[in-house]
UniProtKB/TrEMBL annotation:
Pathway(s) per entry: Nucleotide-sugar biosynthesis; UDP-alpha-D-glucuronate biosynthesis; UDP-alpha-D-glucuronate from UDP-alpha-D-glucose: step 1/1
Pfam families found in the cross-reference section: UDPG_MGDP_dh (PF00984), UDPG_MGDP_dh_C (PF03720), UDPG_MGDP_dh_N (PF03721)
Chemical reaction(s) catalysed: UDP-alpha-D-glucose + 2 NAD(+) + H2O = UDP-alpha-D-glucuronate + 2 NADH + 3 H(+)
Native source species: Labilibaculum antarcticum
Name this protein carries in UniProt: UDP-glucose 6-dehydrogenase
Domain UDP-glucose/GDP-mannose dehydrogenase C-terminal: 320-422
EC number: 1.1.1.22
Top-level EC class: oxidoreductase
Length: 441
């Protein structure tokens, strides 16, 4: 079997590489020439644990290749995945120009039956637009070539994308024909070995499933953040509350950790897009509107705590920041809470020296020299008035506090991820602020 994957970002590159691992021939396509050249020279443009090994193995076996020509990729291809970006439009709805652009290009270049699968996260009804765009191009060419459209939203998580793709909790596929279902079942069969289900459904339900899943996860985060803030006010400890509620199987103990708000390339834009879709249908998704506003507020929670400690005037203060990426094990900075915190600190005349194990290059691309970058976590602490922890990389969990103490001007930590035990911080004589727990002073 041969397939094409259009878009070599986190989703396209991981999907293409993992499909090739099952013996399928995969051609990955991207308009970004620089990315394709890099991939053709054996380099990977993103940080994703485990990807490099599988990538190298399959490139060497000639099962995985890269091109800027969608037309060339179509030779002998049975299935083509659209995995390009769907960034938010100005009004928050998903911008479909890349997805539909690819659909038109497929229509202009296909010469035999194809299953066209949308893997990008797209609003309900997009597959109909993909189908119409392809049909229109075929009509312009005055040819009649059969094709099927399908929806196959992706649930991988950055940081564990390879594992998630190889061992998915479930695979969701929306189809219109038995032929498309048969082809996609065959393609996904190797991933179903551990009893993970493949759920076939109609296309509208499949498209909706992705948004409902991400919105539910974002809701859990905002709920827990709001509860954490209330815990602080009433004198409760959110860690205890989290364990207390998480042991109820109906609630579950996953994804109920408070923090500095959700970021990344998916939750913020997908929640926004679903709210917009609902609005279009005259339905107000009030729950998700609240989820969004709680999240905006939460991204500034550490600034509030910093001002409580230092006073309103932060001018001239120097902050060490540990973690820049929106979560550990990724270099993705899209919508990262660190950006909001940095923007606020710089606006107030403070300076920031940051360290992130893998996201510094990406941060520099976005922030330039507005902040300084440290060579390691200790280097960041030199002469700092306080340390801010934004991303819970595991290497930050057990640092040498005695070294930190010597490097910093004052023993003050603002922990946005609750990675330390307040009692231990008290014994170490640190001022310690965390989320949903009493400050240690
Ligand atoms: P990304 O921005 O990392 O990559 C998108 C790629 O598409 C880029 O390399 C870009 O150059 C390429 N592209 C754009 N237009 C193109 C065209 N006409 N032809 C060929 N290539 C083109 O995006 P991503 O994070 O991989 O996300 C892709 C989609 O998957 C989005 O809809 C996203 O919401 C969804 N998704 C992302 C994740 C995630 O964790 N990143 C998880 C699940 C779903």
């Amino acid at each position: 079997m041969k397939i094409s994957v259009v878009g070599t970002g986190y989703v396209g590159l991981v999907s293409g590489t993992c499909f090739s691992e099952t013996g399928v021939d995969v051609v990955c396509v991207d308009v970004n020439e620089e990315k394709i050249n890099l991939l053709n020279s054996g380099e990977i443009p993103i940080y994703e644990p485990g990807l490099k090994d599988i990538f190298t193995r399959n490139v060497e076996k000639n099962r995985l290749s890269f091109t800027t020509s969608l037309k060339d990729s179509l030779i002998d291809t049975e299935v083509i995945f659209i995995a390009v970006g769907t960034p938010p439009d100005e009004d928050g709805s998903a911008d479909l120009k890349y997805v539909l652009g690819v659909a038109r290009e497929i229509g202009r270049n296909m010469n035999k039956y194809l299953v066209v699968v949308t893997k990008s996260t797209v609003p309900v009804g997009t597959s109909k637009k993909v189908k119409a765009a392809i049909a229109e191009e075929l009509k312009t060419r005055n040819v009649s070539i059969p094709f099927d459209v399908a929806s196959n939203p992706e649930f991988l998580k950055e940081g564990s994308a390879v594992d998630d793709f190889l061992k998915p909790d479930r695979i969701v596929v929306g189809v219109e024909t038995a032929k498309a279902e048969k082809t996609l079942r065959r393609l996904y069969k190797p991933f179903l070995m551990n009893g993970h289900p493949i759920l076939f459904m109609n296309i509208l339900s499949s498209e909706m499933t992705k948004y409902a899943a991400n919105s539910m996860l974002a809701t859990k985060i905002s709920f827990m953040n709001d509860i954490a803030n209330l815990c602080e006010l009433v004198g409760a400890d959110v860690d205890m509350v989290r364990k207390g509620i998480g042991s109820d199987a109906r609630i579950g103990n996953k994804f109920i950790y408070p923090g500095t708000g959700y970021g990344g390339s998916c939750f913020p834009k997908d929640v926004q897009a679903l709210v917009r879709t609902a609005d279009e249908y005259g339905h107000s998704l009030d729950i998700l509107k609240a989820v969004e506003s709680v999240n905006y507020r939460q991204k500034e929670i550490l600034i509030k705590k910093i001002k409580k400690h230092f006073g309103e005037n932060l001018k001239g203060l120097r902050f060490a920041m540990w973690g820049l990426a929106f979560k550990p094990k990724t270099d993705d900075m899209r919508e990262a809470p660190s950006l909001v915190i940095i923007e606020n600190l710089l606006k107030e005349g403070a300076s920031v020296v940051a360290y992130d194990p893998v996201a510094q290059e990406e941060a520099h691309r976005i922030l330039g020299d507005n902040i300084s970058y440290a060579k390691d976590e200790y280097d960041a602490c030199l002469d700092a008035d306080a340390l801010i922890i934004v991303t819970e990389w595991s290497e930050f969990r057990s640092p040498n506090f005695r070294v930190i103490e010597k490097l910093m001007k004052s023993n003050t930590i603002f922990d946005g991820r609750n990675i330390y035990d307040p009692e231990e911080m008290r014994e170490l004589k640190f001022n310690y602020y965390s989320i949903g727990r009493a400050a240690v002073l």
